Structure formats: C-alpha cells, structure tokens
Amino acid sequence: xxxxxxxxxxxxxxxxxxxxxxxxxxxxxxxxxxxxxxxxxxxxxxxxxxxxxxxxxxxxxxxxxxxxxxxxxxxxxxxxxxxxxxxxxxxxxxxxxxxxxxxxxxxxxxxxxxxxxxxxxxxxxxxxxxxxxxxxxxxxxxxxxxxxxxxxxxxxxxxxxxxxxxxxxxxxxxxxxxxxxxxxxxxxxxxxxxxxxxxxxxxxxxxxxxxxxxxxxxxxxxxxxxxxxxxxxxxxxxxxxxxxxxxxxxxxxxxxxxxxxxxxxxxxxxxxxxxxxxxxxxxxxxxxxxxxxxxxxxxxxxxxxxxxxxxxxxxxxxxxxxxxxxxxxxxxxxxxxxxxxxxxxxxxxxxxxxxxxxxxxxxxxxxxxxxxxxxxxxxxxxxxxxxxxxxxxxxxxxxxxxxxxxxxxxxxxxxxxxxxxxxxxxxxxxxxxxxxxxxxxxxxxxxxxxxxxxxxxxxxxxxxxxxxxxxxxxxxxxxxxxxxxxxxxxxxxxxxxxxxxxxxxxxxxxx
Length: 511
Description:
This protein is mainly α. It has one domain: Amino acid/polyamine transporter I (Up-down Bundle), CATH 1.20.1740. It is 65% helix and 2% strand. It contains 18 helices and six strands. The strands form three sheets. Strands 1-5 form a two-stranded antiparallel ribbon. One of its GO terms (molecular function) is transmembrane transporter activity. This is Amino acid transporter. The chain crosses the membrane at residues 44-61, 73-95, 116-144, 156-174, 186-207, 227-250, 271-298, 318-341, 370-389, 395-417, 438-458, 464-485. Its main location: membrane.
C-alpha cells in the first residue's frame, strides 16, 4: 500500500497562511506527492526492532567511558537518563499516533509552535541522525581492521563499503529493510543475553572487587572495594552524556509512522516495549560488564568493553571470533539509523524546509532513495574531511568522541523541543484525538526537558564537550541562514503542514 497526501487536485494553503511567521507556501499538484509516496509495512514487532536496534550498539561500547568518574557516577547517571527517556518515549507514544506523519519531532513542534520551531527541532534531529551512523561505522571499521588485520589507512574503505551496503538495503525496499532490522536486532540482543548469562554462571562476578576498583585520584585500586562515588556527587553530571549512549535514537520510531499499517495502535506499543527492553539491558550491561575484570578502571578507557568482558570469561584466543560477534550490535544500529535519517530528510524536504528534490522516492520501491544517499554522503564526507585533515590517529579521536557528542547535543535540543511540543499540544489542542495517553502526562515531558537541559548545559560548560557543542552551533548557523534566505519562501502543504495549518482537522489519507 502506498501512502500519499490528499486525494486529487491542487494543494494550496488556507487563506492567511502565506504571511504567517514570514512563511511562503508554494502551490503544488497531486503529481508532486505522487513522486513522493511510501509503502506501509511495519507492525509492532518491526517498530520494536527499529527502536531497540537503533540503540543497541550503545550497549556494546561508548557507555563505558562514563566509568572514568567511578561506577556510582555512571549508575546514578543511568537512572537519571532512563527517567528522561521514559518521559520522552511516553510523550512520543501519545503524540505519534495523534500526528501519524513521517516528520516525527519536526511534525510535533510544527503543529504546536509553528514553522520556525518545527525547523529548529528538525535540524537538531538531523544532526543526531546523520552523525550517529558516521561514528558507528567508524567503530565497525575498527573491529573489521582487527578481524582482517588491515592497516589503519584502509579504514575509509570499510566506511564506504558499509554505507553502500546498508543504504542499498534501505533503498531496495521497506519490507527487506524491516526484515534485516528485526534479524540483526534479535542477533544483537542474543549476543548480549549470552554475555549476561555467561557472567552469572562463570563465578567471576565480584562487584566490590571490580566495579569499585577506582580511587578518588583516578588510579586503579589493586584490591577494589573503593568508594561508590570516588569523584564525588558532581561527577554524576560528567557521566550523563555517556549514559545517553545507552538509549540514544529510540526516539526515531515516529519517523516510521507513514510506513506502519496501524500507527494509532502499533506506535505506542512499539515505543514502550522498546524503551523497557533497553532499560533492562542497560542496567544488566552496567552491572555485569563492570562486575568482572578489568572492572571500572579498565573499562573506563576501553574501546570495546563487551569484548573485554568476553576475554575475561573465555580467554584471548577467540578474540577475532568475539570481535566478529560484536560487530552485530554495531550493524544493528548502523542499519536502523540510516533508515531514520532517510525518513527525517525526506519529511523536511517534502515540506520544503530542505530542497524538495531530496524527498523524491524510488518509482518502483517507494523508498526515499535520494534522502538516503544524501544523508550517507554528508556523514561520509564529514568523516573523510576529519580523517585526511587531521591524520588517522587524531581523526579517530575526533570521529569517535567529538562527533558522537555532537549527536548527543543535537539529541538534547530535540528532546527539549519535543517535551515542549507535548505540553503546548496538550494546552492548544485539548480535543485532539489521542489513541494513547501518557500516564506521566505533562510532568513526564517537563522532567525530560529539565534533564535534557542539564545534560546540554554540562556539555557546554565542560571543556571535554565544548568542541562538539560549538560544532552543533556552527551547523545551526548555516542551516538557519538557509531557511531565512531560501527555505521559508518554498514551503509546501505536506501532511505535516496541512495538519498544522488546519489545527488538526485535516485527515491524512492513504491510497
């Protein structure tokens, strides 16, 4: 089934919309949307896999860098960030079936607060979804280099091959894309489950000995049994950005609304099941991975914490096999976030915020192939510029650290705006049909906004993260200049725009 906007005829904005907030709409006919159709395929199982798969690589690596502040700091940071994501995901579970458009976060902000707020939110999410797979493919190439014993200079070849393969899978068709998503997500979870069971059955788990083996001076304690918060209460803030990696990108689910058979019923179930799965896995990996050698002191500096755990359990002789297994989790997230940036670019382009040619879909397969290729090219270009400008070693540091923290900063901005969208929608559209209502209500959205703001503030004030936040600011300046000069004069009455301009009265029709 293909999905389009409207029925037949010309699509023009309602009277008075042209001058609102300095915005100008371009009138288009049905052929515009005919060239931009999607197919419905996803159900609850696929949506659950899309959300979990996007995040799961963060349970393989990245989160552990927060252990440099001690286990207690990472533990409390994970609780705080889990609360933020509960507030976010339950708000999304209410908003996404009420506004079942591909635009997701942009759509919620556009309807509640206008086109400028929608664009600001869309750019924040664009930063997150374009840069995150770039960092993930860097980690994939690192693992592949170890497996095949290739020189560091060969890594860009792995990047190009991985992007080509998984963008290709996403272009071939939504059915194949979701089948791959379900398969790799289940495989990634199976690897984690095997690790958790292995730790519990090994007899090597010793929480006080390993998880508490970091002293107040940052040095390793040979016998463990150190303080729960060796760096003090303030260190919890320093671990917040790393705890985000355990959940980052679950919010992409609403982007699949127009490819879901029944978004009103399936979207809330998929989002809630996804976040509960991730919370359970996050605390298991935090306790079980840190509770065996090399413990918090070793894992805080590790690029492959899950592999370090496997080596402790089974020895180093099977390191290559374990590295190949670990790639599964990275592939799951890489593949699913490629899906996300394709739909995110597609939705903003279809509405005219980005150049409209980016939203053209494949004539036969009905996938946003232009948006997928453009997002991949942008992410790959950023990586190659850094790699060749700074050299392999320095480039690796920037790609592995700064770019991912740029993604986190973009995510925090998007979360703040989505929490605000929820609150405004509640007040401005009390009669809007909401198939699901968040049990946390406005309190959940406010909690999400506060934690996101605190995390972003810490990134801005801490020298470790400042480069990333400055990078986000530069990207924003460029994109806002584009919208001010060009984009705001070329908006189109897409489903998201029509819904907003008619205050939720426009029906979204399927063909």
